[in-house]
Write a structure and sequence with these properties.
The protein is an alpha+beta fold. It folds into two domains: 242 residues, Glutamine Phosphoribosylpyrophosphate, subunit 1, domain 1 (4-Layer Sandwich), CATH 3.60.20; 216 residues, Rossmann fold. Helices cover 32% and strands 23% of the residues. The protein is built from 17 helices and 23 strands. A seven-stranded antiparallel β-sheet has the order 3-2-4-1-10-9-11. The chain has a six-stranded antiparallel β-sheet with strand order 5-6-7-8-12-13, with helices on one face. Strands 17-20-21-22 form a four-stranded parallel β-sheet, with helices on both faces. Helix 4 crosses helix 5 and helix 8 packs across helix 9. The two termini are 43 Å apart. The structure holds 1-O-pyrophosphono-5-O-phosphono-alpha-D-ribofuranose, glutamine and magnesium ion. Magnesium ion binds next to loops.
Length: 480
């Protein structure tokens, strides 16, 4: 799907998966199933690379997993080690050259790599590598990582990865393979998730544990921040290349990205969302006839809210499951119609009612505005919007495709201004404290930079300048 066709809101992350077995027992199919389960993390391109200890074969293309692979393609991918990727581009264009996994040949061997995340110093490293004569095939940050590893590969794969990790900065969950092993690496802050599963015949890696069910695997544990796990069919070897006093797991995984049936860093995503609904009900009660969600990610939140408030949960919007396959070229008018195509009001459930409408986030404000309008047109008496995250007020540089700060409504408008813009009768955002309470782990475990601007690492200079300007704009407004 082309980017213009996507919605204005928050977008997905990439998904990565890996498999290693004693022998080739449907390795490519397991990856196919795993990627299918991770499809929500990226819909632009998909790819699988499989290695039989000698040859590496791969196939990648633009489109959904089901569009990129058929039986014939999967049958060609023979081997007992494999990795896969579904992409939502964060650096470099959305085209087939930038599809992952990336496969490079070096000194008699092959390395394949799939990356979820975003580096903050990719430009600098790329310039240095290019100055040293390295040729790049793609425009993505991930190729910097694979080229660094290839460059140091005469020191052995582990030392090569260690040295590369000393140089790269940013967010990365990596699955890497060569002819001998499958390797999983997670950045020192643990910004992006990665977990290990055990199958009857070996091991698997995936961005989210929800992929394990269809891969026939059981969750063993998460790869820890700053950890490199080397997996052979016999077992897992672990080493830490860097260890920091804090973690910075992306809080948006729990709010929006991850599937509710995933467990990330010991937190059950479904329960976390339900808890945030309970906390929302406590933080800002309002009298109403029905609690409803913007499907799908907010459904557990609405259930939690209903449970805690005693107000019944009901369905007020029906989501068209096939929207991801639309290929119309949008004009603004078509976009407006497309929202209706995606979410249609259930007039019979809404008419004459005071509604509590729950969504996971407000980014530009377009979704909530359109939905409140739709519900009111369908006869809702009042619409009280409750959001299961604080205002998104700072851009993300670690892999979430948030727009520039000037387009973030939470960066430039006050809560009451936003309420008026979206035509809500009342508006409340979950407080950062409430969000952390819902997750049940200390705040120092998470990156909340999109809400408070406390980035867990230094940002590129341009980003710092942009942030500075916007903060002043907002503070000026609040002080007026
Ligand atoms: O304020 P906005 O800029 O509109 O962004 C916020 C919306 O973006 C996301 O939904 P999205 O429509 O991207 O996808 P979803 O169907 O997976 O929730 C998120 O769930 C919010 O609904
Ligand atoms: N969303 C992601 O994790 C993207 C990975 C990588 N930066 C790319 O653009 O391909
Ligand atoms: Mg949404």
């Amino acid at each position: 799907m082309s980017k213009e066709l996507m919605w204005d809101g928050l977008k997905e992350e990439c998904g990565v998966a890996g498999v290693i077995q004693m022998e080739d027992d449907h390795t490519a199919e397991l990856l196919y199933f795993g990627l299918y389960a991770l499809q929500h993390r990226g819909q632009e391109s998909a790819g699988i690379a499989v290695n039989d200890g000698d040859k590496t074969r791969w196939h990648k293309d633009m489109g959904l997993v089901s569009e990129v692979f058929d039986n014939e393609e999967l049958e060609k991918l023979t081997g007992h080690i494999g990795i896969g990727h579904v992409r939502y581009s964060t650096s470099g264009e959305s085209d087939v050259e930038n599809a992952q996994p990336l496969v490079v040949r070096y000194r008699g061997g092959t390395i394949a790599l799939a990356h979820n995340g975003n580096l903050v110093n990719a430009r600098l490293l790329r310039d240095r590598l290019e100055d040293a004569g390295v040729v790049f095939q793609t425009t993505i940050d991930s190729e910097v990582i694979v080229n660094l590893i290839a460059r140091y590969s005469n020191e052995g794969i582990h030392q090569a990865i260690r040295r590369s990790m000393e140089l790269i900065k940013g967010a990365y969950a990596l699955v890497i393979m060569n002819e001998e092993c499958l390797i999983g690496v997670r950045d020192p802050l643990g910004l992006r998730p990665l977990c290990i599963g055990k199958t009857e015949k070996g091991y698997v890696l995936a961005s989210e544990s929800s992929a394990f069910d269809v891969m026939g695997a059981e969750l063993v544990r998460d790869v820890e921040p700053g950890e490199m796990v080397t997996i052979t069919p016999e077992g897992i070897q672990s080493e830490f290349f860097q260890s920091l006093p804090r973690r910075a797991g992306c809080i948006f995984e729990y709010i929006y990205f991850a599937r509710p049936d995933s467990i990330i860093d010991g937190i059950n995503v479904y329960e976390a969302r339900k808890n945030s609904g309970r906390v929302l009900a406590k933080e800002c009660p309002v009298e109403a006839d029905m609690v409803m969600a913007v499907p799908d990610s907010s459904i557990p939140v609405a259930l939690g809210y209903a449970e805690a408030s005693g107000i019944p949960y009901g369905e007020g919007l029906i989501k068209n499951r096939y929207i991801g396959r639309t290929f119309i070229q949008p004009t603004q008018a078509i976009r407006e119609l497309a929202v209706k195509l995606k979410l249609s009001p259930m007039a019979a459930n809404i008419k004459g009612k005071k509604l509590i409408l729950i969504d996971d986030s407000i980014v530009r404000g377009t979704t909530s505005k359109r939905i409140v309008e739709t519900l009111k047109q369908a006869g809702a008496k009042e619409v009280h919007v409750r959001v299961s995250s604080p205002p998104v007020a700072y851009s993300c540089y670690f892999g979430i495709d948030t727009p520039d700060r000037n387009q973030l409504i939470g960066a430039v408008k006050t809560v009451d201004e936003i309420r008026k813009i979206i035509h809500a009768d009342s508006l409340h955002y979950l407080t950062p404290e409430g969000l952390v309470e819902a997750l049940g782990k200390p705040e120092k475990n998470f990156c909340l930079a999109c809400f408070d601007g406390n980035y867990p690492m230094e940002l590129p200079e341009k980003a710092q300048q942009q942030n500075g300007q916007r903060v002043f704009q907002r503070l000026d407004k609040e002080n007026q």
